[in-house]
Design brief:
Blueprint (H helix, E strand, L loop, with lengths): L12 E3 H14 L5 H8 L12 E3 H15 L4 H6 L8 H8 L4 H15 L3 E8 L2 E8 L5 H18 L8 E3 L9 H8 L3 E2 L5 E6 H4 L8 H17 L6 H11 L7 H7 L4 H10 L4 H19 L4 H7 L5 H12 L3 H8 L5
Parallel strand pairs: 5-6
Antiparallel strand pairs: 1-2, 3-4, 4-7, 5-7
Helix pairs in contact: 5-6, 5-10, 10-11, 12-13, 15-16
């Protein structure tokens, strides 16, 4: 799947709940260290941790990880921190992940809402050689400890929603091989690990990825996906694309989705909307096509809608228009896409 458009580095932030939970873990398990002093050294006001909807500059979060690694001298500290994080560390996304239908939809949800966690990278979920590959391409240089913590958290959550002894087929990491703690990495991931790679990757067998999860709850998923969508749309008022995406989703079934109707819904002129999109390196048609593609694939994977119903939900006049548009966006017809991808997600 395609990643999101890149954001300017100056605006790269991380959801505060991640840091809130991280600080709580350090306070509980490494109480000899004063987290208030660490936060002050990083330049973060501890009062910020009282607001779960706040965001923290990404570089400050990286600095926090660097300091923790330095004062503990533990190469595997990222794994240990990530292995203790809970769903609340990811705001609404954490709870939505735990109600996903399959590991496939679990990872697709990471891809869709990764901006909520951080703007430091792009998440992607693909099928390669009969395996699901979840990857994270980083836009900025991150300390290895922070990358370790994220991948450890992803696997911890997967084990919690699927089974405790679940292991991936392969893990790839940009970091160099740890000098003294490689055995701890082997013990945690329980699979081959390749170091010095271009991106973070976690490979899952096709059979594991398609197993129904015991906590699947479609109503819970919809509610928390909506909270996550609304949060992303409002956390940075300067970003117009998430606001347009949210408006498109609400208006597609009515069939009257145009730059005029969306601009009106957002309370701005057509020209102002076009100008803001241009500033973010996009166009209205590109955003509309992207949302239709995402929703079409989601509806196909859910198996709950006929082609005719999907055509209506996506604002097309009839099934043939939908099928032609889907082929233009994906290179395959809806039926060909399902047959080739073999993905089952919510």
């Amino acid at each position: 799947m395609e990643g999101e458009a890149e954001f300017p580095t100056a605006k790269v932030t991380v959801i505060a709940t991640w840091l809130i939970h991280l600080v709580a873990i350090v306070d509980e398990f490494y109480s000899e260290f004063d987290t208030n002093e660490i936060l002050q050294e990083v330049g973060i006001n501890p009062e910020l941790l009282n607001d779960p909807n706040a965001r923290v500059p990404s570089w400050q979060v990286s600095k926090f990880y660097e300091i923790i690694q330095r004062i503990t001298g533990d190469e595997a500290i990222g794994l240990k921190l990530g292995a203790r994080l809970t769903p609340g560390s990811m705001h609404a996304l954490g709870y939505s992940l735990f109600a996903s239908r399959t590991l496939n939809s679990f990872f697709v949800r990471y891809e869709r809402f990764f901006q909520l966690i951080s703007q430091a990278g792009n998440a992607s979920t693909q099928i390669r050689d009969k395996r699901l590959v979840f990857s994270l391409t980083i836009r900025e240089k991150l300390p290895p400890t922070r990358e370790d913590a994220f991948l450890a958290t992803v696997l911890r959550f997967a084990r919690m929603v699927y089974r405790s002894n679940f292991s991936p087929i392969l893990v790839r990491m940009p970091r160099p091989k740890p000098k003294f703690a490689s055995a701890e990495f082997d013990d945690y991931f329980c699979c081959p690990i390749e170091y010095g790679c271009e991106r973070l990757e976690l490979h899952v067998s096709e059979s594991d990825s398609n197993q129904r999860l015991r906590g699947f709850n479609p109503e819970f998923v919809r509610a928390h996906d909506q909270i996550a969508t609304e949060y992303i749309a409002r956390f940075d008022d300067e970003q117009i694309i998430p606001r347009i995406q949210s408006a498109i989703v609400n208006m597609l079934p009515d069939g009257d989705v145009s730059i005029r109707t969306i601009a009106s819904a957002l309370g701005m002129s057509n020209r102002s909307l076009q100008r803001q999109l241009q500033n973010e390196g996009s166009t209205f048609n590109a955003v509309l096509d992207g949302m239709r593609k995402y929703l079409a694939i989601r509806y196909l994977r859910s198996g709950r809608h006929s082609i005719k119903e999907m055509s209506y939900l996506l604002g097309y006049n009839d099934s043939s228009n939908f099928s032609r548009a889907f082929r233009r966006l994906t290179g395959r017809s809806p039926h060909e896409y399902l047959e080739k991808s073999k993905l089952k997600s919510e």
